[in-house]
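Running this now, will post back.
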Amino acid sequence: MSITRVGLVAKTGVDAAASVLADLAGWLEARDVRPIFETETAALAGLPPGRSTVARDDLPRECDLIVVLGGDGSLIGMAGRIAEAGVDVPIVGVNFGNLGFLTEITLEELYQSLESVIDGTAHVEERMMLRARTLRDGVVFAERLALNDVVITKGALSRIIDLAVAIGERPVMHVRADGLIIASPTGSTAYNLAAGGPILHPEVDALLLTPIAPHMLTNRPIVLPGWSEVRVQPAVNGSNEEVFVTFDGQSGHAVQSEDIICVSRAPRPLRLIRASSRTYFDVLRQKLKWSER
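Update: finished.
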């Protein structure tokens, strides 16, 4: 993997990133690697006028590696853009604040991690992405790619919603609940975990179905094979005046009673650079405070 262009993206409003961006750009240029600034990030870093920048949506097509300075939300947003661009650009998440499940590289580890990417020794994990399609009247109304989850949920004024769930053409269950989470292994530590779903190691090839506050205690989370296509439809006789589907919590749309939400593994995984000094279980212990008594 030859790295000659590195995209730089910072969370909007993180002023502390300005000096880091300037130092990082100089460090890259000293190694004959061209830093490419996302437009808003360039303004944050105080780049002089006239320096070329790239819009956030276009950045994945213009570089060989993307460095995200911020939190998990910033990385998830960029992961979606990489997937939509149909490229295999790896991503480095550098946290500003508390350790993230995805942005788990600290500022102190930044240059060591980048050095390992440039010399080809970096630890690169492939994380499953989700492909979600909304079928309306038999045609694709919307299509999105997500890293963590696809969530079907009721509106603020709705009562319990009724969802019919199938794997392909095979019925699985009816869910009467506040909603349903369809999560990847990466997303198992996000909304799924808060809703009582299990944690899956990111190397497990599986999907998760987790009801949100189910009406029946027998509606429990279920782990499905990674090749599954989950199909969810609001039941015709349910109270579905306000049902929404969201993708990684960053975009979404209203669902009609005849819509079918189809979720499956996306064609391309996300390539995530991990810190060589920290395992996945180290992150879990720190984030979930498993080491405390």
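The chain has two domains: 5-128+269-287, 130-265. More later if anyone needs it.
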